[in-house]
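REQUEST ID: PR-0412
SUBMITTED BY: lab tech R.K.
PRIORITY: routine
TASK: structure prediction, single protein chain
INPUT:
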Amino acid sequence: MSAEITEPLSKVDSAVDSTEPASPTEAKARHRRASSTVSGVYNINDLEKEGKEISIAPETQRLGWKLNTSPATLDEKEVLKKLLVEPPVKRIDLHFPLGLEVTARNLKGVTIKDALDAIYKQFKKKADDELGENPVLAGFEWDKEESWTRLIVHQKKEGAPSSSGKKSKKNKDEA
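STATUS: complete
OUTPUT:
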Protein backbone atom coordinates (compact mmCIF):
# COMPACT_ATOMS: atom_id res chain seq x y z
CA MET A 1 0.00 0.00 0.00
CA SER A 2 1.22 3.38 -0.86
CA ALA A 3 1.07 6.27 1.58
CA GLU A 4 -0.13 8.71 -1.10
CA ILE A 5 -3.83 9.13 -1.89
CA THR A 6 -4.55 9.53 -5.56
CA GLU A 7 -8.33 10.11 -5.32
CA PRO A 8 -10.01 12.75 -3.13
CA LEU A 9 -12.16 11.31 -0.36
CA SER A 10 -15.85 11.30 -1.15
CA LYS A 11 -17.13 10.73 2.41
CA VAL A 12 -16.76 13.36 5.07
CA ASP A 13 -16.42 12.72 8.79
CA SER A 14 -19.57 13.93 10.61
CA ALA A 15 -17.46 15.66 13.26
CA VAL A 16 -15.94 17.96 10.65
CA ASP A 17 -17.99 21.04 9.69
CA SER A 18 -18.06 21.11 5.92
CA THR A 19 -18.96 24.26 4.02
CA GLU A 20 -20.15 22.31 1.03
CA PRO A 21 -23.05 19.79 1.33
CA ALA A 22 -22.45 16.07 0.84
CA SER A 23 -25.24 15.80 -1.73
CA PRO A 24 -27.18 18.24 -3.92
CA THR A 25 -30.48 17.45 -2.15
CA GLU A 26 -29.13 18.71 1.16
CA ALA A 27 -28.39 22.08 -0.42
CA LYS A 28 -32.01 22.41 -1.60
CA ALA A 29 -33.47 21.49 1.80
CA ARG A 30 -32.32 24.79 3.28
CA HIS A 31 -34.55 26.92 1.03
CA ARG A 32 -38.34 27.14 1.14
CA ARG A 33 -40.12 26.19 -2.03
CA ALA A 34 -41.31 29.22 -3.92
CA SER A 35 -44.10 27.32 -5.70
CA SER A 36 -46.08 26.68 -2.50
CA THR A 37 -46.69 30.38 -1.91
CA VAL A 38 -49.11 32.14 -4.22
CA SER A 39 -49.14 35.89 -4.65
CA GLY A 40 -52.35 37.60 -3.57
CA VAL A 41 -53.16 34.96 -0.92
CA TYR A 42 -52.85 36.34 2.59
CA ASN A 43 -52.25 35.02 6.06
CA ILE A 44 -55.34 35.85 8.13
CA ASN A 45 -53.12 37.24 10.92
CA ASP A 46 -51.50 39.70 8.47
CA LEU A 47 -54.96 40.94 7.43
CA GLU A 48 -55.78 41.54 11.09
CA LYS A 49 -52.58 43.56 11.60
CA GLU A 50 -53.34 45.66 8.53
CA GLY A 51 -56.99 46.05 9.56
CA LYS A 52 -58.19 44.73 6.19
CA GLU A 53 -61.85 43.68 6.17
CA ILE A 54 -62.85 40.30 4.72
CA SER A 55 -66.11 39.41 3.02
CA ILE A 56 -67.71 35.97 2.87
CA ALA A 57 -69.06 34.47 -0.35
CA PRO A 58 -72.90 34.74 -0.20
CA GLU A 59 -73.28 31.40 -2.04
CA THR A 60 -72.63 29.55 1.23
CA GLN A 61 -76.08 30.58 2.52
CA ARG A 62 -77.92 28.92 -0.36
CA LEU A 63 -76.24 25.50 -0.29
CA GLY A 64 -78.66 23.64 2.02
CA TRP A 65 -75.86 21.15 2.78
CA LYS A 66 -76.20 18.55 5.54
CA LEU A 67 -73.05 18.44 7.68
CA ASN A 68 -72.60 14.65 7.58
CA THR A 69 -72.86 14.29 3.78
CA SER A 70 -69.92 14.66 1.42
CA PRO A 71 -69.57 18.04 -0.29
CA ALA A 72 -69.11 16.11 -3.54
CA THR A 73 -72.85 15.26 -3.48
CA LEU A 74 -73.85 18.91 -3.95
CA ASP A 75 -75.45 19.72 -7.30
CA GLU A 76 -73.75 23.09 -7.70
CA LYS A 77 -70.14 22.06 -8.37
CA GLU A 78 -69.12 25.55 -9.59
CA VAL A 79 -69.93 27.05 -6.18
CA LEU A 80 -67.42 24.73 -4.50
CA LYS A 81 -64.56 26.23 -6.53
CA LYS A 82 -65.27 29.80 -5.37
CA LEU A 83 -63.14 31.40 -2.67
CA LEU A 84 -64.75 31.35 0.78
CA VAL A 85 -63.55 34.84 1.69
CA GLU A 86 -62.27 37.85 -0.17
CA PRO A 87 -59.32 38.63 -0.06
CA PRO A 88 -58.16 34.98 -0.26
CA VAL A 89 -56.52 33.50 2.85
CA LYS A 90 -54.32 30.42 3.38
CA ARG A 91 -56.27 29.17 6.38
CA ILE A 92 -59.29 30.14 8.45
CA ASP A 93 -60.86 28.73 11.59
CA LEU A 94 -64.54 27.78 11.53
CA HIS A 95 -66.17 28.07 14.95
CA PHE A 96 -69.39 26.24 15.85
CA PRO A 97 -71.70 27.74 18.51
CA LEU A 98 -71.20 24.74 20.85
CA GLY A 99 -67.43 25.25 20.91
CA LEU A 100 -66.15 22.93 18.17
CA GLU A 101 -63.55 24.58 15.95
CA VAL A 102 -62.22 23.26 12.63
CA THR A 103 -59.61 24.79 10.35
CA ALA A 104 -59.89 25.00 6.57
CA ARG A 105 -56.55 25.28 4.76
CA ASN A 106 -55.45 25.84 1.18
CA LEU A 107 -52.22 27.59 0.18
CA LYS A 108 -53.87 28.87 -3.00
CA GLY A 109 -56.78 30.39 -1.05
CA VAL A 110 -59.47 28.63 1.00
CA THR A 111 -62.43 27.71 -1.20
CA ILE A 112 -65.98 26.83 -0.18
CA LYS A 113 -65.09 23.18 -0.83
CA ASP A 114 -62.12 23.38 1.57
CA ALA A 115 -64.41 24.70 4.32
CA LEU A 116 -67.08 22.05 3.68
CA ASP A 117 -64.43 19.30 3.59
CA ALA A 118 -63.08 20.42 6.97
CA ILE A 119 -66.59 20.40 8.47
CA TYR A 120 -67.46 17.06 6.82
CA LYS A 121 -64.32 15.47 8.27
CA GLN A 122 -65.67 16.20 11.77
CA PHE A 123 -69.25 15.03 11.13
CA LYS A 124 -68.96 12.20 8.57
CA LYS A 125 -69.19 9.39 11.15
CA LYS A 126 -72.22 10.87 12.91
CA ALA A 127 -75.74 9.63 12.23
CA ASP A 128 -78.47 12.15 11.34
CA ASP A 129 -79.98 12.03 14.84
CA GLU A 130 -76.56 12.76 16.41
CA LEU A 131 -76.21 16.08 14.58
CA GLY A 132 -78.60 17.86 16.94
CA GLU A 133 -81.48 20.18 16.09
CA ASN A 134 -79.76 21.97 13.21
CA PRO A 135 -78.00 19.52 10.86
CA VAL A 136 -77.86 21.82 7.80
CA LEU A 137 -75.36 24.59 7.03
CA ALA A 138 -77.04 28.01 7.01
CA GLY A 139 -73.90 30.02 6.29
CA PHE A 140 -70.91 31.73 7.88
CA GLU A 141 -70.57 34.96 9.82
CA TRP A 142 -67.46 37.06 10.37
CA ASP A 143 -67.54 39.06 13.59
CA LYS A 144 -64.36 41.13 13.77
CA GLU A 145 -65.16 42.29 17.33
CA GLU A 146 -65.24 38.68 18.60
CA SER A 147 -62.36 37.23 16.59
CA TRP A 148 -60.76 38.53 13.40
CA THR A 149 -59.28 35.18 12.43
CA ARG A 150 -62.34 32.92 12.49
CA LEU A 151 -65.78 32.55 11.00
CA ILE A 152 -68.85 31.54 13.00
CA VAL A 153 -70.75 28.62 11.46
CA HIS A 154 -74.55 28.97 11.43
CA GLN A 155 -76.83 25.97 11.14
CA LYS A 156 -80.54 25.50 10.43
CA LYS A 157 -83.15 22.76 10.77
CA GLU A 158 -83.81 21.94 7.09
CA GLY A 159 -82.10 22.40 3.74
CA ALA A 160 -83.40 24.77 1.09
CA PRO A 161 -85.86 23.18 -1.34
CA SER A 162 -83.92 21.99 -4.35
CA SER A 163 -85.01 22.62 -7.92
CA SER A 164 -84.15 19.15 -9.28
CA GLY A 165 -86.88 16.49 -9.11
CA LYS A 166 -84.52 13.71 -8.09
CA LYS A 167 -83.29 15.61 -5.05
CA SER A 168 -86.78 16.53 -3.81
CA LYS A 169 -87.88 12.89 -3.94
CA LYS A 170 -84.96 12.00 -1.65
CA ASN A 171 -86.01 14.74 0.77
CA LYS A 172 -89.60 13.38 0.88
CA ASP A 173 -88.34 9.84 1.59
CA GLU A 174 -86.18 11.05 4.50
CA ALA A 175 -89.00 13.06 6.10
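NOTES: The first strand starts at residue 55 and ends at 56.
REVIEWED BY: pending
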